[in-house]
Design goal:
Length: 320
């Protein structure tokens, strides 16, 4: 009996239709509140041309001005006979040949491209996420194994840590770390933010690791011990590799959530992506445009992470 595959294009077309409908609904909603879109204001918050004012170092006069394209080279001769050469943008030149200058007078500006606040906020979000995720993974692995330990002290302490962190809001933990622990130990706000996020992530990773290890059949450990492996070797070479395949999806989901949770460190004046977006809104008055860009940047981080985790999951499944 030949099995015929049903065409999938009608479902893809329905998906496209739903997305178009959502876009039209958004457009109608903004039209009802008479919102004027100003996307032209957004690029400057990713990169812009900064201007550095070039000033005379001493009293003197303009000895020579040589124009080359968009640049002008100005030679100043001081009263003591020393010369100062400045390269400035031609359209910013404020002096002519023979003019007298005083110390600190502006000659012109030099322009160079620099990252805007949204770009810097994205970078801050990235390094906070990477550091918090790495430390959170180590903490979670250790705490998860402690929860499976035969030592009652290790098991009890790890249980208290997991339940305490999971049972309180992350925002409260950040405040405690910064205003209490950070003040007592004189920690920077960046250190306090990373530590709070790492401990928060570690508690969830600990439960993921515990569940993954316990999902492996006890016969695996017994077989490893019968081959002469001790408890540590059995866990490292037999149990954890199998558990890792099973816990990869929830781990990926936890790290994706961590990237979004970094937005909460803005409450302790860390200028990450969300805080950069709020600051950009106060100067551009382009509320919807900036928030859409911020959301897109979070997607830019999380979609590749999700894709990598999916590919790794498929590769590990093929190795079974």
């Amino acid at each position: 009996m030949i099995k015929h595959n049903k065409p999938q294009w009608p479902w893809h077309a329905l998906t496209a239709l739903v997305l178009v409908g959502l876009a039209c609904s958004l457009y109608l909603a903004t039209s009802m509140i008479s919102y004027e879109w100003r996307w032209n204001r957004v690029p400057q918050y990713f990169a812009f041309q900064a201007e550095d004012v070039q000033r005379a170092a001493s009293y003197g006069s303009v000895e020579e001005i040589v124009v080359s394209g968009d640049q002008a080279r100005v030679t100043l001769k001081g009263e003591d006979g020393d010369t100062q050469v400045l390269d400035v943008a031609k359209d910013s030149l404020q002096l002519s040949r023979g003019d007298d200058v005083s110390e600190g007078d502006a000659v012109g500006v030099t322009r160079h491209w620099t990252a805007g606040p949204l770009a810097w906020g994205l970078w801050t979000t990235l390094w906070i996420s990477v550091l918090s995720g790495a430390f959170g993974l180590l903490i979670g692995l250790f705490a998860g194994l402690c929860r499976l330990s035969n030592n009652p002290t290790l098991r009890d302490l790890s249980t208290v840590y997991v339940e305490l962190v999971r049972g309180t809001p992350l925002l409260v933990q950040i405040f405690i770390f910064y205003f209490f622990i950070g003040t007592v130990l004189n920690l920077s706000r960046e250190f306090a933010g990373v530590a709070a996020l790492a401990l928060f992530t570690g508690a969830y990773v600990a439960e993921i690791v515990r569940a993954g290890v316990q999902s492996i059949a006890k016969g695996q450990n017994e077989a490893a011990r019968s081959l002469g492996l001790n408890a540590g070797q059995s866990m490292r070479h037999v149990i954890l590799p199998q558990a890792f395949k099973r816990v990869l999806p929830p781990l990926a989901g936890q790290f994706i959530s961590l990237v979004k949770d970094t937005s909460l460190v803005s409450v302790i004046a860390i200028t990450e992506l969300t805080k950069s977006g709020r600051e950009a809104i106060t100067t551009s008055f382009s509320t919807f445009e900036i928030w859409f860009c911020v959301a897109g940047l979070y997607l830019l981080i999380n979609l590749p992470l999700s894709h990598i985790a999916s590919r790794l999951e498929r590769r590990l499944a093929q190795s079974d």
